[in-house]
Amino acid sequence: MPKARKNKEDTWMPPRVYLGRSAYEYHPKGGGNIRLCDKTSTQAQVWTAWEALINDRPDDSLFSGLVERFFKSGDFYELAPETQKDYRKYSAKVLAVFGQMPSDAIKPEHVRRYMDKRGVKSRTQANREKAFMSRAYRWAYERGMVKGNPTKGVRQYKEVSRDRYITHEEYQALYSVAPDVVKVAMELAYLCCARQNDVLEIKKGQILDDGILIKQSKTAVAQIKAWSPRLETVMKLAQSLPLNDGMSSLYVIHQPAGGKYTRDGFNSRWRKAKQEAKERFPALSFDFTFHDLKAKGISDLKGNLYEKQAISGHKNIEQTARYDRKIAIVPVVGGQ
């Protein structure tokens, strides 16, 4: 039941609608106000404006409405583009289960039950989807839209760190059959110890006299990767990537029309190259990811973990240790 109006003359107004200084305004539960129409409007016009707004607004009481508002928020658009894309992907699974539930009706035991069932197929995805729910609820709680965050206290699955090290033989085999665009990306990821997104985002303006300027999207650490003969060679290969007649590109790795490769677009070429490598080199294993190229680069760096941390741009030594995957060679008894 809506609250009774203090001014009886306002009882005709739609719920949460008030007369401001110059216009009729709708005041959402989360705070703020939305202009509906001019104060000279008729009662019928006010109701029409309110109905148009409500029909276009998500239902804040349902989790689906909360997620929709989160996706339209400034906080969401401040996230990295790849994170936004991942959150939208995670939301599909979560909304299929919780979308039509009132946001405050979702309890920790419901989240736990979801995790248990989702974890049967993929524990990693269960963790990612719970993290998405937590982020959406945190945003809503800070704005008074929900009473709490039901994901708090729900234990995530323990994830086993990847330890896959790409051997030189495996790397060279894949490189030998890959198209030039994949070769360039492989070399930049390996030599610069860079993530896929940061490699695909490199613009020609980042090519400096001292090297290639790369600002990591995840840690925001900016570094100039100094020139080496091998890095200079891959940049020459990048300059030969095909462009349609009359087209130019801002990106080092670009499509023929000049645009940059999306993650999905590049990954289709990456998967095709790995499949061809499997057929050409059946004795080798190609069960590694593109992200494992960064780990190979860090593993192959010379020096101790602290020296590798400085080059990789990690904020702490623990991150570097997770990427250092080359198995140590130690002496046997009597061989020191």
Give a quick set of tags describing it.
single chain, 336 residues, mainly alpha, Double Stranded RNA Binding Domain, hpI Integrase, Chain A, three-stranded antiparallel beta sheet, 48% helix
Task: Explain the layout of strands and helices.
Elements (H helix, E strand, L loop, with lengths): L16 E3 L3 E4 L7 E5 L4 H14 L6 H9 L2 H4 L3 H18 L9 H14 L1 H20 L25 H10 L2 H13 L3 H5 L10 E5 L6 E5 L2 H11 L23 H18 L11 H9 L4 H8 L4 H7 L13
Antiparallel strand pairs: 1-2, 2-3, 4-5
Helix pairs in contact: 2-4, 4-6, 5-6, 7-11, 8-10, 8-12, 13-14
Quick overview:
This protein has helices spanning about 45-55, 65-70, 75, 80-100, 110-120, 125-140, 170-175, 180-190, 195-200, 230-240, 265-280, 290-300, 305-310, 315-325; strands spanning about 15-20, 25, 35-40, 210-215, 220-225.
